Amino acid sequence: MSVASSGGRLGRRQFLSGAAAGLVAGAAGPAAAQQGSGPLQVPVWTREQGEGIASPAYGVPSAFEKSVIRKPRTPPKFPTAASTGTPLQHLHGIITPAGLHYERHHAGVPAIDPEQHRLVIHGLVERPLILTMNDIARFPSVSRLWFLECSGNTPQWTGGSAKWTVQETHGLISCSEWTGVRLSTLLDEVGLKPEARWVLAEGADGAAMTRSIPLDVVLDEALVAYAQNGEHLRPEQGYPLRLVLPGIEGNMSIKWLRRLKVGDQPFQSREETSKYTDLMPDGTARQFTFVMETKSVITSPSGGHQLREKGFYEIRGLAWSGRGRIRSVDVSTDGGATWRPAELQEPVLSRCLTRFRVPWTWDGGPALLQSRAVDETGYVQPSRQQLVDVRGVNSQYHFNGIQTWKVAPSGEVTNAA
Ligand SMILES: Nc1nc2c(c(=O)[nH]1)N[C@H]1C(S)=C(S)[C@@H](COP(=O)(O)O)O[C@H]1N2
Ligand SMILES: [Mo]
């Protein structure tokens, strides 16, 4: 039996009872003034001409969507070393609109003139090169739908705040269609020397962010991207050029990319020694933990939501794996005692967000909502306890434990991680 058919069996009446109640409430509320008194009156916006075209010339969301915005994370020590989270609770499907893509900047957003921007490729190569943006645009291009996730996403190693929304627990993930040149294509052009094993990537921002990337990651589809969701990158996403390394911690996808240096070993930059390592319970640190492991989260209902009445709800969420495709997602409404398979929305792509859904009838009692993803390698998303048993609680990065949202009989939804 598919989950969709069990949803269908609930019948139309049950889906619509809430909506009909809403309509009655609406007719008595502020909307009544606009709509007239009965259902389907001709509203004022149907009786007059709308706004002309080209106002503004670059389209923006409806004025009624003002609450759908990025949100700054914990107050930064410096205003330019900051991050903002994507409002996952307000989004549908799998693509993040560019204006809502999460941000993580270590030294603010540089204003780079693409005419003056250069990419240097040197080190253990046969023919070092300096490329202009026009040069880069001439190479064969590819487009890929991939998520990007900061390894600092979900800062819940020692628990989180009950008040956190999914924007705060999981907002440092976004998903775009990226277009650019394969990094391997550029490296073919310069010719790798036989000793080549690692590539240093450096950004042109005030942080001059630098990370060492092993050759297997380079050759695994890594992109030097200039476009995102059909248009050139936004300044905050690395305009005019960035790396996008699929399934790899966001920090390594160097923005404002200006230099690639090929070496025979890792370069041991600040971001891979003092930062972006994982402190284990025995005091040793794991270094070069690149892959973003399988993870999922319910985005609706989620923290900060208020269920207004008993009855039908569609539980909706997102799942992803840095190792490939999502194979399945199970959902529990009783804190993990029982699980039901969710329906996966196609396309289910490798290292991309996957949307899942499961029908749920809320009986008005307390509930604990959880999702657990499995990827095509068979890796199962761990519970918080399973993760902490292995990793301890000294880490800052790579928390991929199962998220719990608590639904109170009042309908209030809070973070129970
Ligand atoms: N040059 C440069 N690249 C950078 C950063 C930066 O501060 N400077 N931040 C990194 C981090 S920590 C992450 S998670 C991603 C964030 O990319 P986004 O801001 O496009 O979401 O970019 C990475 N690349
Ligand atoms: Mo990050």
TrEMBL record:
Keyword Oxidoreductase: yes
Cofactor(s) listed: Mo-molybdopterin
Signal peptide (from-to): none
One MF annotation (Gene Ontology) recorded for this entry: sulfite oxidase activity
Domain Oxidoreductase molybdopterin-binding: 106-269
Residue ranges of domain Moybdenum cofactor oxidoreductase dimerisation in the record: 288-399
Keyword entries, A-Z: Metal-binding, Molybdenum, Oxidoreductase
One example of a Gene Ontology biological process annotation: sulfur compound metabolic process
PROSITE patterns with a match to the protein in the record: TAT
Domain of life: Bacteria
Pfam annotation, one family: Oxidored_molyb
PANTHER family reported in the protein's UniProt record: SULFITE OXIDASE, MITOCHONDRIAL, SULFITE REDUCTASE
Name of the featured protein: Sulfite oxidase and related enzymes
Organism of derivation: Azorhizobium caulinodans (strain ATCC 43989 / DSM 5975 / JCM 20966 / LMG 6465 / NBRC 14845 / NCIMB 13405 / ORS 571)
Lineage per the UniProt record: Bacteria, Pseudomonadati, Pseudomonadota, Alphaproteobacteria, Hyphomicrobiales
